[in-house]
Amino acid sequence: MYKERSLTDQEIDLLKSQNCECDDWTLVTVAPGFNPHFVKNTRFSGKIRIGLLDEEFELAGGLRKHACINNAVIHNCEIGNNVVIENIQNYIANYVIGDNCFIQNVDVILVDGMTTFGNGTEVNVLNESGGREVHIHDKLSAHFAYVYSLYRHRPNLIRRMRAMVDFYARKHASEMGYIGDHAMIVNVGYIKNVKIGSYSKITGAMKLKNGSINSNGQAPVYVGRNVIAEDFIISSGSRVEGGSIISRCFIGQACHLDHGYSASDSLFFSNCQGENGEACALFAGPYTVTHHKSTLLIAGMFSFMNAGSGSNQSNHMYKLGPIHQGIIERGAKTTSNSYVLWPAKVGPFSLILGRHYQHSDTSNLPFSYLVENNNATHLAPAINLRSVGTIRDAKKWPERDKRRDPNKLDYINFNLLSPYTIQKVFAGVEILKNLQATAGETSEIYTYQSCIIKNAALRRGLELYEIVIHKFLGNSIIKRLEKTGFTSNVEIRERLKPDTPIGTGEWVDISGLIAPKSEIDKLLCRIENGEITRLKEINKVFKELHEQYYTLEWTWAWEKIQEFYNVTPESITAGEIIEIVEKWKAAVVKLDEMIYNDAKKEFSLSFKTGFGSDGDIQDQAMDFEYVRGAFDKNPFVVATLRHIEDKKALGNELIERIRNVK
To answer: Which DSSP symbol is given to 312?
Structure first.
């Protein structure tokens, strides 16, 4: 702010002549250099501070507007330098308004009593009637919310986490609101108990109540026309517009809600998109996307997920209230008109087609298809590994990260293959082999978790799982040995030693962050015993685990390499590594060829139906090519072919580098 001074008698007389009123002008102070000519038709009450009114705003279309205060009622406010406050229908009360703000055509902006600006709001995520509630706050990460909502079997942990949120909310409670520098608030109805960050742009919103808009210069927030928001937090870089209605919601960084999207008791984390549809008690982890009017996401946990039109879930198989929830692990998709009856759990990178009523748990059969057939769920394990869509999705997520705020709330691991997914692949292999052993290898069908698996699907699943194991473990060993010259097996063995013993055992995906379960357990124990007492300390641990991912991944991968290839750290040789790399090369090429062939299907004759209207088959082919492009020039196809050659070269380079090592 600025050093203030009292108004002079001449300034008071001028303000009065410009239809300004105040019960006690001694409570009004101004910045040195204040020009009263730009304050008109305004009533002041309470303690008032006003800055300079020297500069002009250039508006869209070239119109220029001088800083001013016109046609307003202002109570107990601190107003920064060079603002426009104009045409306030009712009043502005109890706000600190930053420099260069533009506030025009607004009904009311007020703070009434002590408020936490949405911090501490209880969001009944995953269960509308409570039991997994998350108390939101400005610094909420997907990982904190994951633990807070799912680990109810550790009540002391939840009490400690709740205390941290309560402390944060009390610390940031105030009887004064805040509008940050360069904020624009135009044509807005009702704003009550809302903290508005710098560079926020709010245009045409109907009602904003009890919330925080955490905008900043690097990542502004936009709240658009006809939006209604109550009990909310909107994080940096997000957009909520198009008549969207949110109640008791946390909107994470770089999210976008538009076209009348409706959400209650829901959490949306980084890069989520919601348009047209509806959410209730939704835990939308990073990159949860839903675009369709007919789509409802309810009482479920998702991440890296795309919901098809008409997707729906139900938790209404109850007598004493809604208790059922569902977890769709990272990377899943639902097709049009899909339905899942909660409770259910679906493994990562799976595709859900049709309607499913069986309460199945396929979490240890990743990359699968769940297909409805005669009211039963048919499971095709691993089949999604050869889908061009799966690979395209994995590539697009990091490219579509719209977060511009240097202080990121979520630590997101984009890897398609990781210890988290590969451990599930190993578990899937064991499940499928046990089914063969129990029912016999010649059985036509197998049953697992109320799902039907055909013999051919089971055998194909085992084949694909083996391929992807070779790919991941081979990737790991090549990465570990890259850019290093070796003269002996002893040097190779030394390089293969992990940098840390941390990383063995089970890994978890806590809504975007992939880490060893042992380290997450250590963090939770430190919270339970009172060693960690602040939100920023928890986020620091999440950040460290994210930054150490590849170091910890190698510890896990090296242990699996020893088990899978039957090698030992004390005796492994260059020859054995070459055998592993050759298997890796074969796996990579085979998988890429499957993906290439899957992509080729989209350029088949049947896909060209409807192209080349009123023409012959040649016109059809030409029209398709002009719209979709030629297959051999498609960027993804070209990249896939290049990937095959690059990976062959990478493997050959390592083989040549260690071929003569003894």
So the answer is: E
pLDDT digits (tens, 9 = 90+) for 480-491: 998 888 889 999
Tokens of 180: 């940050």
- Assess contact for 372 and 390: CB atoms under 8 A: no
pLDDT digits (tens, 9 = 90+) for 496-537: 999 999 999 999 999 999 999 999 999 999 999 999 999 999
The dihedral region occupied by 586, where left means phi > 0, alpha psi between -120 and 50, and beta the remainder, is alpha
CA distances from 194 to 79, 94, 151, 341, 520 (A): 17, 11, 31, 38, 35
Q: Which two tokens stand for residue 271?
A: 């890069």
Distances in whole angstroms, Cα of residue 256 to Cα of each of 199, 285, 301, 428, 462? 17, 14, 18, 36, 40
The burial class, CB within 10 Å (0-12 / 13-18 / 19+), for 659 is: exposed
Hey, which residues does 267 pair with through a beta bridge? 250, 283
- More reliable by pLDDT, 210 or 593: 210
The model's pLDDT over 98-155, given as tens digits with 9 standing for 90+, comes to: 999 999 999 999 999 999 999 999 999 998 878 899 999 999 999 999 999 999 999 9
Q: Three-class SS string for 585-604?
A: HHHHHHHHHHHHHHHHHCCC
Strands 376-380 and 369-373: antiparallel
Domain boundaries, the chain: 1-110, 574-659
**Residue in the block written with tokens 């926020």:** 200
Confidence of residue 633 (pLDDT cuts 50, 70, 90): low
Residue 549 · residue 512 · CB < 8 Å: no
Exposure on the CB side of residue 30, measured as CA atoms within 13 A: 19
Among residues 295, 268, 300, 271, which one has the least CA distance to residue 284?
Answer: 268
Pairing of strands 369-373, 222-223: unpaired
- Whole-angstrom Cα distance, residue 618 to residue 657? 51
